[in-house]
Amino acid sequence: MKFGILVFPGSNCDQDCFHVVKNVLKKPVRYIWHRETDLSGLDCVILPGGFSYGDYLRTGAVARFSPVMKALADFAAKGSTVIGICNGFQILLEAKLLPGIMLRNKNLHFICKHVYIKTENNHTRFTSLYKKDQILRIPIAHNEGNYYIDARGLEDLRNNNQIVFRYCSATGEVNDQYNPNGALDNIAGIINKHGNVLGMMPHPERSAESELGSNDGFFLFKAIFKWLETQKHD
Amino acid sequence: MIKPEVYHTLGLNDQEYKNILKILKREPSPTELAMFSVEWSEHCGYLCSRKWLKLLPKTGKYKTLIGEDSGGIIIDDLAIIFKMESHNHPSQVEPKQGAATGVGGIIRDIFTAGARPIALLDSLRFGPLSHAYNKYLLRGVVDGIQFYGNCVGVPTVGGEIYFDESYNGNCLVNAMCIGIADRKKLARARATGAGNSIMYVGSSTGKDGIGGCSILASNEFGKGDEKRPTVQIGDPFTEKCLIEATLEAIETGYIVGIKDMGAAGLTCCTSEMASAGNSGMDVELQCVPRREEGMEPWEVMMSESQERMLVCIKKGKERAVKQIFLKWGLKANVIGNVTADGFVTIRDIDKIEARIKAHSLTRAPVFDMPYTRPKKLKELNSLNLTGLLLPGDHNKILRKLLSSPSIADKSWVYGQYDHMVGTNTVVLPGSDAAVIRLKGTHKAIAATTDCSSRYCLLDPYEGARIAVAEAARNLVCAGADPAAVTDCLNFGNPEKPESFWYFKNCVEGISDACRAFRIAVVSGNVSFYNESPKAAINPTPAIGMIGIVSDVKRACSQGFKRPGDVIILLGRTLEELGGSEYLKEIHGLVRGRPPKLNIDLEKTIQKTALEAIEKGLVNSAHDCSEGGLAVALAECCISDKENMIGAVIDNLNYSMRTDALLFGESQSRIILSCKKEYAWKIEKIAKRNKAPFHTIGRTEGNRLKIFVRRKEVINLPLEKLDEGWRGSLKRHLSIIPRN
């Protein structure tokens, strides 16, 4: 049962994700350098946040050409578990492993703060430890988190229950007032059709220890581990 | 024959040029002249300040480390390395890149010591936001800090922002970085061992920032000067790769020494690394990676292109080190080697362009600058309170003070900074001090920056002592034991005796206060010539201080936590209005004397608060500073937007002017809140320490009510307080409309 943290030049949440898996979840984990092409032996790959290649172009637009991305596509196609957080989500979109695109935040500023998100779909390997509609307190920190997809794409996401998290108030109201970045339909996280690739803008690794103000994010990592373990026994 | 105009343009005076002739016993080459001009600039050589900087204590109650480019303290097996540095003039010229490269430079000073950067703070000062250019500066500086800090992945966890007329035409941008390292794996900025290799790593060299430090940092701004070409451009992505590559390289044990090419670039690195190692260095400029064609040797030596470093490597290990930098996509070229002759020799296709004793470059002359007490001070210090009208409506005044940009909420600023990356930020920005946990231990570091420049203008010695005391008090409020200082001394033209008098007195004040608290000044920076055509800035000795939280679970913040708590005021309140924010904002006066600081009283207050916090008795702690008691109480009520808590203050029985009681800025005061049943325990601690202790009220409801001698003087709903305080910066920047 091994986690891998993908490191692109410019990734900066790689060590935070590593810390949570190794010291909080206490499971085996290793870094994957972006030039590696062999992901065998890994059960879950995390694409961490940061500014891959500086993100001087569109976020994730360069990272998707990294040598590791071919292997990652194969890894995902096999049904293995992939999660992209923040810049990781942006890269998954650019690599077309998830549908849609990211625009600049509506206020054109970087936004770093705690927000609330609602668990719209708890029937995934990532969210099985949350209740349906459970509200999580979790930080965001990004310039481009304004998720967009065309009307048909949105319809698809809804029909297939692919919208996993939506921005909301502390009491669970989902509306414009509680949409920090302008994301379409308050979307904070989505999953692919097959249910093995999750992308989310909020940072679960920053809310995995109560010392940091919230441990809501920890249960996402724990759910992945739990799911991987049931796979082993099957 | 070199004409005086040439060396004058480079910032050297006749006497300095004569010294150069004496040292070389011949005329300098153009490259040599350029090298002397930057190394002997105030920025690099500390010519005017060195004599006085020696006063600052280098030891304290924690074991200190003083490196070439930074310093720190030892906690168990960890070295905590930190430093603050100015980037004022570049930011005034081009705020985004000026601030960005300021952040980049200070981060490099930390990781070249072998420490991983874990936090940034920024001490910023601007002219009033009523001027369009100051808005542009604030927006640009914030944009630069977020652009660089967010990308490089070091959280910006704190700092301060003040607005004052004296910064019109000369803003201050002081950036501080904190890093941690295994104490056994620290690196030095020196070259030793003849035959060892000198490697250039990082970005390539261009014409950006040529002469930046001698020209920008060492002269005042004239009107309408066009200085843009001398500001450097930052590349945080390269810096991030440099951090990782450098720390990986230091881990190999093959690195003898390493230094950031900051101000004065290659000149500074070659001469200072050689000098620090009592060695010489022989360098071939053709091996320096370039991004521009046709650069003269002196331009290569002067360039301040960012994200570059010079590394001294054990002979035979060049390839192994180079591999690491190449892996991170960085350039790495051997450009020379260490010699035993003590000379810095610079070649260009083997032709010797410069050959100077390293020590003579780095041991710039020391000037004993004349100083004299400013004439205007007598008038400035006089303040007759009897002539000062007592306000009728204290509510209105409190709201006005809360919305004054210097006091108002700064979340518009720090909300744009990633202050959580690294997952160590336990107390977020917006409290007295940020708290950053040390993973793998139960401890944490608290950090703050502080300086009331108005106090320093009215009394530099007292003002500087207060800056140190207040920084320490902020740390105590976070639950930390004050441990060590870095200072960033921002002053006007040192050649003006009145200006230098301020510098001398501030340094003495810092020195005395630090000695009294037994804390060392481990690093720092001096920035002179902060003047616009109108006048010098207020003397601004920014104090960056870190403290140690012994149990991270006890870290404390300023906001009230729950209704029904007792509110305690530690300290004495005197009728002191001199230099206050109230006098300035409400009466338009910058006058009088700053509040008196009694260090012994201060120590008893800090000891009491820290002891109570460490015992887990305290729910919140907040220092009383700008705006006095009323502002501090309001901040306790509203600082947590999601959990605002009202207060009733009905036990203030002082006989003095009500405005002085509410808005005076008497020092050595801390507001605590605690569970009812703990109040007597805190009182006991206060008694034992002989600290003045007053129970002044309780947390309750959704209003702030203050009674003075049973008469209600403040009664405001929390939303009203919040509206003025939280929206103020955005209103001033016209992001949301003014009322």
The percent of residues in helical segments of chain A reads 10-25%
Write the CATH fold name of the domain at 558-739 in chain B.
Answer: Phosphoribosyl-aminoimidazole Synthetase, Chain A, domain 2
Shape of chain B: globular
What Rg of chain A, in angstroms, do the CA atoms define?
Answer: 16 Å
Proportion in helices of chain B? 25-40%
What distance lies between the first and last C-alpha atoms of chain A, to the nearest angstrom? Answer: 14 Å
Number of helices of chain B: 26
Count the E strands of chain A.
Answer: 11
Return the CATH class of chain A. Answer: Alpha Beta
CATH topology of chain A: Rossmann fold
Q: Total number of helical segments of chain A?
A: 5
What is the CATH homology-level superfamily of the domain at 558-739 in chain B? PurM-like C-terminal domain
Largest Cβ-defined interface: A-B, 33 and 31 residues
Fraction of residues in β-strands of chain B? 15-25%
What is the CATH superfamily classification of chain A?
A: Class I glutamine amidotransferase (GATase) domain
CATH class wording of the domain at 558-739 in chain B? Alpha Beta
